[in-house]
Amino acid sequence: MEELSFDSTSAEATEEFLSTAYTPMRIGKSAADARTRISRRAAGPLNVDRLSFGYDMAYDAESLGRVCLLSIHAGTVVDRSGADGEQGETVFGPGETFLIAPPDAPYRGEVRSARYTIAMFDTALLDAMAPAGAEGAPVRLTGLRTVDEAANRQLGAAVAYVRDHVLDNPAAYGNELLLTTAAQHLAAATLAALPHTGRTDPVPADRTDATPATLRRAIAFVEANADREISLADIAAAAFVTPRALQYAFRRHLDTTPLGYLRRVRLDAAHRDLLAADPATATVTGIAMHWGFAHPGHFASLYRAAYGRSPGWTLRLRD
Question: Could you give all domains of the chain from N- to C-terminal order, each with its CATH number?
Answer without folding.
Answer: 2-123 (2.60.120.10), 170-316 (1.10.10.60)
